[in-house]
Design goal:
Blueprint (H helix, E strand, L loop, with lengths): L21 E3 L6 E3 L4 E5 L5 E3 L9 E4 L3 H9 L2 H10 L9 H23 L2 E3 L1 H9 L5 E4 L5 H17 L11 E2 L4 H8 L6 E4 L2 H18 L20 E2 L4
Parallel strand pairs: 7-8
Antiparallel strand pairs: 1-2, 3-4, 3-5, 5-10, 6-9, 7-9
Helix pairs in contact: 1-3, 3-6, 3-7, 4-5
Length: 246
């Protein structure tokens, strides 16, 4: 199985994303592509809320750390101070902001899977997935968290065979990505019964799904920590915010 990595948000985003605008994390002060971060917005009464789809109007600020680091920064008051500087006003940071972000990232990943299923770029069922994998048609293989090891190994092997036959060795994952939720959650997201393994058969769809899952997985990574950077926030806050949802 694929082992979750100890990295900040969205370590494996589409190369095209890197050509887009960058934003600065208010905690680490590291500049990264906007799509690799989580946008935060303010309600009319000054409460901070997650805006993981970057659609809320008005000024936004960005964070690029995992939940453990974010929760610690909330307890220590560092996030409140950093956001007050970024938004240039007093803000209220809910104690459960980390949980809200996690739930929003989870829902975004599930919604993306549902969209791809309705668009015909996602298949499920062990036999269908194995056949597509052996034909080199699978660009991303996903296993439910509670999938059996034997089933995972069988489909991972089919994926490697298909990649080799299609001349795609060294391009893309050579084994399935383990979804951070069980088959029941996958089944509900896709509106199908007993979904244990899914495969993306379109490269663009695979990148979209991989990006959504990686953002969620990176945020809930239990190894994320404040030791990755100074979270005091000691520079200009201008690059940490944007206007509108651009």
């Amino acid at each position: 199985m694929r082992t979750p990595r100890n990295e900040v948000l969205a370590p494996d985003i589409d190369e095209a994303t890197h050509a887009g605008p960058e934003r600065t994390c208010v905690l680490t002060r590291a500049a990264r592509p906007k799509e690799a971060l989580v946008r935060l917005a303010l309600s009319p009464d000054g409460e901070v809320a997650p805006d993981v789809r970057a659609r809320a109007p008005g000024r936004g600020a960005y964070v690029g750390v995992g939940r453990a680091a974010l929760d610690a920064a909330i307890v220590k008051g560092k996030l409140k101070g950093a956001l007050a500087r970024a938004f240039k006003q007093d803000v209220r940071v809910p104690a459960d902001l980390g949980a809200r972000i996690e739930a929003a990232l989870r829902q975004a990943a599930l919604d993306r899977l549902g969209l791809e299923a309705r668009g015909g770029t996602l298949i499920n069922g062990s036999d269908r997935v194995e056949q597509a994998a052996r034909l080199g048609k699978v660009h991303l293989l996903v296993h439910a968290a509670d999938a059996g090891e034997d089933g995972n190994r069988k489909l991972d092997q089919a994926l490697r065979v298909g990649l080799a036959d299609a001349g795609r060795n060294g391009r893309g994952d050579q084994r399935g990505l383990v979804f951070p939720a069980d088959r029941t959650t996958l089944s509900l997201a896709l509106g199908r019964e007993n979904v244990v393994h899914v495969a993306l058969t379109d490269p663009a769809a695979a990148r979209r799904v991989r990006h959504a899952i990686d953002r969620w997985q990176a945020f809930i990574d239990p190894h994320a920590g404040l030791e990755r950077a100074d979270t005091g926030g000691s520079g200009s806050a201008d690059a940490t915010t944007d206007e509108g949802n651009a």
